[in-house]
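Hi F.,

I've been meaning to write this up properly since the lab meeting, where we talked about keeping a consistent format for the predictions we share between groups. The idea is simple: the sequence comes first, exactly as it goes in, then the structure tokens exactly as they come out, then a line or two of notes. No screenshots and no reformatting. I'm using this chain as the first example so we have something concrete to point to.
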Amino acid sequence: MPDPVECATHLAGLLEDAQAVGTTVRERFSDLSPEQLAWRPPEGGWGVADCLEHLTITDTKYLDNMDGVLAKHVATDAPPAFQGGPWAAKFIGMLAPGAKRKLKAPGKFRADQGEPPSDALPRFLAVQERLEAMLRTLEGYDLRVKVKSPVSGLIRFRLGDAAHLLVVHDARHVAQAARVLAHDAFPGRDA
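Output, unedited:
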């Protein structure tokens, strides 16, 4: 089981990491053309827009569930420390950037849901702002309160773990999108 950490420290670290993801996205992808956003590697895999749209879908579903939990709870004198759950720690490790194991996204989290690739960037940045606002809002709440995973109602994570999952998952797929830019066949890439 992860070691306990002060709640404010946990949330501040997550907010800093989430802001770094947003900065990376703005710096690396804002100047891409619609063609570049939509481009996919010829050997298969997701392009930049696919990665961002997947994150938008996933983050929105989690944040909606977290909003539902917060609507039923009042910010109180939350415990000063948060200890993540062992089940969540495994998921966080599997979803973190640099994790070796590839995971297939469930169908409802896949990017092929009809959104134009050119909309992926502003849609992601909007949900990223929502995530950052959620991280600020969580201060004062009991981070041990459970929230349903949108993957399955049978899976529940502590609020503090769900927030952590979102941030590491976002970082993982933004790193994946950045690797697309380095592909030899990426359109407009200088040889």
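Notes:
Residues 5-181 form a domain with the Four Helix Bundle (Hemerythrin (Met), subunit A) fold (CATH 1.20.120.450).
The chain has a mean pLDDT of 87.

If this format works for you, I'll send the rest the same way.

G.
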